[in-house]
Write a structure and sequence with these properties.
The chain is an alpha+beta fold. It has helices at 5-40, 79-90, 112-131, 143-155, 165-170, 208-219, and strands at 47-48, 67-71, 96-97, 101-105, 173-177, 191-193, 223-225, 234-238. The protein has 6 helices and 8 strands; from the N terminus they run H-E-E-H-E-E-H-H-H-E-E-H-E-E. Helix 1 packs across helix 3 (112-131).
Length: 239
């Protein structure tokens, strides 16, 4: 129950640093983020998300300019594949990979060398694409996901609710192969990462669209959490 004085001392040191050097450190970080964004925009195979103006200077809303999101489908790779190459072979680690994108966070601790290594990593991927025979841009690496998610927000077609989560949790259960789980009632929470938002909740009817989405995410390198079967070959459903 006692406070951690190691943590308190670290917080106080960080507060002191920001109070005495914060503006300079933050400006240098923003400059490095802008440098990385500008240099990556010069690589033809990449599409870089630019900060969006969300209001005037008094609105209190602004895009986080230290977050750098890169669309890598022009490299002929999914975000997961690009992340694996950058991390294991080139020493560049993304904050978040998705099917199409990589997001990086430029922090106060990043150096000029880090920015150069980031840019060089993507230059390496672009050159490898130009040399290879499998470098056609991926028009849509997971074609079913985006249209089905859009449909789910407009027609509630994805996973209609049949039971409350509590009722599904307490109900008798059985294990079925994922290929045979369509129209069963889920007994577990199934959550793809990224983005870390549940796709199927306990008590919801599992529709074929949801199963295809899970299979697309797995095949492109994503991770599914919450399933009793970590391979996601089977699902727990209400008996």
């Amino acid at each position: 129950t006692s406070p951690s004085y190691l943590l308190l001392a670290s917080l106080d040191a960080a507060r002191c640093q920001m109070a005495t050097q914060g503006y300079e450190l933050m400006q240098r970080t923003l400059d490095r983020a802008n440098q990385a964004r500008t240099q990556l925009q010069q690589i033809p195979s990449l599409r870089i998300f630019n900060p969006v103006v969300l209001g005037d200077s008094t609105s209190g809303f602004e895009s986080d300019r230290t977050r750098l999101t890169v669309d890598v489908t022009g490299l002929g790779l999914t975000g997961f594949e690009a992340d694996n190459i950058l991390h294991t072979q080139l020493g560049v680690t993304a904050e978040l990979p998705t099917q199409r994108h990589l997001t990086f966070i430029i922090s106060l601790g990043n150096t000029q060398v880090d920015i150069e290594q980031l840019v060089q990593g993507f230059q390496h991927l672009a050159k490898a694409r130009d040399r290879g025979n499998n470098g056609a841009p991926i028009q849509n690496p997971v074609p079913s996901i985006f249209s089905e998610v859009k449909q789910s927000h407009t027609s509630e077609a994805i996973n209609p609710k049949s039971l409350t989560p509590r009722a599904a949790f307490l109900a008798p259960k059985k294990t079925v192969a994922i290929a045979h789980a369509a129209y069963c009632i889920s007994a577990e929470l199934i959550c793809p990462y990224p983005p870390g938002i549940p796709l199927i909740m306990p008590g919801e009817v599992i529709l074929p669209e949801a199963i295809r989405m899970l299979q697309d995410i797995l095949s492109s390198g994503g991770v599914i959490t919450g399933c009793s079967d970590i391979s996601v070959q089977t699902l727990q459903v209400v008996d």
